[in-house]
Amino acid sequence: MSDSVRTGTATHCPYCALQCGMTVDQELVVRPREFPTNRGGLCQKGWTSASLLASDRLTTPLLRGSDGTLQPASWDEALSFVAQRIREIQGESGPDSVAVFGGGGLTNEKAYLLGKFARVALKTSQIDYNGRFCMSAAAAAGNLAFGLDRGMPFPVTDVDTADAVLLAGSNVHETMPPFSQHLSGAAVIVVDPRRTPTAEAAALHLAPRPGTDLALALGMLHAAVVEGQVDAAYVRSRTTGFDAVWRIAAQWWPERAELVTGVAAADQRRAVRMLAEASSAYVLTARGTEQHSRGTDTVSGWINLALALGLPGVRGSGFGCLTGQGNGQGGREHGQKADQLPGYRKIDDPEARAHVAGVWGVSPAELPGPGRSAYRLLESLGTPSGARGLLVFGSNPVVSAPRAARVTDRLASLDLLVVADFVLSETALLADVVLPVTQWAEEDGTLTNLEGRVLLRQRAVPPPEGVLSDTDVLAGLAVRLGQPAERFPVAAEEIFEELRLASAGGKADYSGVTYARLRAGEALYWPVPSVDHPGTPRMFLDGFAFPDGLARFVAVDFAGPAEVVDSSFPLWATTGRVLQHYQSGAQTRRVPELMDAVPEVFVEVHPDVAARAGLDDGSLARVVSRRGSVVARVRFSPSIRLDTVFLPFHFPGAGRANLITNPALDPISEMPEFKVCAARLEVAS
Ligand code: SF4
């Protein structure tokens, strides 16, 4: 056996944005390797990830036959059928009658090509992706405050030396366990309604009522000002807008915030002192605080606190957002968002349109304008103003979208649903055409991890016979729709060469990143504006991304969740992840070790609350909201708030947590309110 077979190919985990370094060999054995984010650690998902390569994955295209079942077809039959139906639908109803839905797990090359395919081959404005459900509120708040969104604008390893870290809405012990080693030297403050393993290990746990994080951030900002902990020199020299923010925060004395959030005023003051007195401190947010109908305002509230304490853009301190999906960062930079072109350019910016159209060899006037954001796009499907056809790549909205029953209904009403995936996901089961595509270790491609570092994920094993890459699918369809073949390359490196040109001069400038540099092991954090540029591990040290270099305080006030509890729905339901599963579970539910550990949906509930509803530990509960209900196994949790229940969102069918979630959208980012809705518990038969 050769050394390379024995040691395997250096690659990265297929799941979350920590993108832990690992090797995979020909025997499908995974081994962790030294990489700064994981330092030889992997979580259970990473250790078992090679199971995906051997799982019940798809190896032949499927077409729905006249008897209503999915039948094997050749690639030519499947792609020709899809192209023909697209032509018919668009011929009758116009370019926007066919939509595209992408995913935050797609490589940079796929996300880029998908955006180009939609705008150039389909000429549709209707494209968005599931990352809208993941990072959009944080991204919007980062853009407002710093002029630019890179989740963590510093390497993860910078956190190693922190004295204090505030984690708002993050449960890293379960969602990305190897990250926890970067917190080992810090006093950690966790903001989470649940006493998660991360909260359990923290120096201080603040447990606000779901949906009240912004009131907590305002109370803490008030405490910082009143107790003289504001870094006045920093605020004066590096920011603007403090006075307007203080006019609001002045009303939020910690005792008032305590009434709204349930977090003791003394604990708010203690948390602020811990951050202010640390010589190195970080504030990091994640989905728990972001997935709200005021998600952007809530992140702005945390940024305001960090700015007042003088943390962002300072070496050894900072503010960041922990990206969730594997390519959640790169996936939002290269054009699969409704309002975006590659390089983090805005699609309604004439200069950006001219630049990208030039790279694509089309006229700027041919490019469509902005389309609908993810939930609006899904909700409009099959309606008179919405698309009649949808192409889905790397996403499973039947499980992952809010108000999932409504979304399923919309998907079922389509004249054409095409799903490219490597497993028969719940969304693929509804499709007219299913296209079997390659997965992580079977293909080359780049991803951008949670710290903005561009990584090369290398092919480690050949794909099974019959499987093509998503890029083959896009090129095959584009050619059948009349595009020149040379406009849609299929090799990852060739696509990346084009992406470099398209991103050049944009906010997320990858023009200096090459496969050769990545293969040589260079740590390249964007922007990398030329091939001799070393990359930008730490942003904002010399100024923020505004012409005056100043960060913006953004004046925000607390408004509360989009719906209220009442006698019919007296509890707050919140949703999240467990260690063993990832996103909609389409992948991890196929890994036996992970299913053995957590085989079904559960509802975490305080024993007293369960008793009032007539529920025992292990019994089946129906969790009912104003939109629907979920059947889940009761799991007693004496530490959860008495007004709160928790459900993981990885399970299908009647166990979909998203059957009850509220699609109320944040007005700035259009992030749905996944993290809080009014609910009640019933005994399920
Ligand atoms: Fe690392 Fe995330 Fe993969 Fe776990 S799921 S091994 S934390 S990249």
From TrEMBL:
Q: Name one GO molecular function term.
A: 4 iron, 4 sulfur cluster binding
**Gene Ontology CC:** membrane
Cytoplasm found in the keyword field: no
InterPro entries per record: Asp_de-COase-like_dom_sf (IPR009010), MoPterin_dinucl-bd_dom (IPR006657), Mopterin_OxRdtase (IPR006656), Mopterin_OxRdtase_4Fe-4S_dom (IPR006963), Prok_molybdopt-oxidoreductase (IPR050123)
Q: Where are the transmembrane segments?
A: none
* SMART domains, per the entry: Molybdop_Fe4S4 (SM00926)
Enumerate the UniProt keywords alphabetically.
4Fe-4S, Iron, Iron-sulfur, Metal-binding
Give the CDD domains listed for this entry.
MopB_CT_Fdh-Nap-like
Record domain 4Fe-4S Mo/W bis-MGD-type: where? 6-55
The protein here is known as Nitrite reductase
What phylogenetic lineage does the species belong to?
Answer: Bacteria, Bacillati, Actinomycetota, Actinomycetes, Pseudonocardiales
